[in-house]
Design goal:
With 251 residues, this protein is of the alpha/beta class. The chain contains nine helices and seven strands, in the order βαβαβαβαβααβαααβ. The chain has one domain: Rossmann fold (3-Layer(aba) Sandwich), CATH 3.40.50.720. The chain is 48% helix and 16% strand. A seven-stranded parallel beta sheet has the order 3-2-1-4-5-6-7, sandwiched between helices. It is globular.
Amino acid sequence: MVASGRVALVTGGGSGMGEATSHRLAREGMAVGVLDIDSAAAERVAAAIRESGGRAIAVTADISVRREVKAAIDAVRDAFGPIAILINNAAIESFTAIEEIDEDSWDRLMSVNLKGAYIVIQTVLADMTAAGWGRIVNVSAIGAQSGATHMAHYTAAKGGLIAMTKSLAIELGARGITVNSVSPGFILTPMSQRAIDANLFPVPAEQIYGAYPIPRLGRPEEIAAACAYLVSDDAGYVTGQVLAVNGGAYV
């Protein structure tokens, strides 16, 4: 299903949904650049892929810093060649009442979760344009569709990511590049587990996902499967879409 043999870059690939997606694409025959701000986490994932017979390289960058992104992507190109597939997954989150969000926090969320995605897209776009083929998947969030208490800055950035997805789908389609978004619901990742443990949600986590039509937490592998479809040859006529993987939470 997935375009085997091509080169993929997964941001935030060192844990959670990014880790699962890196493994999934590698199993489908892709060479994977595992990019993460945590160099040890990126190397752990890349090493596990190599030990399983796949091809992967770990690279480190803060995606909000263009020079770091360029250096990381150049390293992936040097190892495997031009990048054809991008999974924009890296993100940070915060739970803060609107009255208490300071400008530094707002700017940092926007810088990583929205500006960072734009920087990475710009940096890989020449490869896809030259090939006349490309796949971009921006990982958004259910809160961007439904709203979320104490997450105005996070959901604003993720909502911007959905809007950018739709605009780029229109702009890049004629180049052979599709641009889609996967919108996860409540997925069990290290990030969400920290929020659960710190009781950062307005009600207990079990009460949130227990009310879903599919009343359980999602798995990172289920996000990886959605990404694998959207980067496949089978999805060549799918662009500008938001594929919600959320157990029916936003219907």
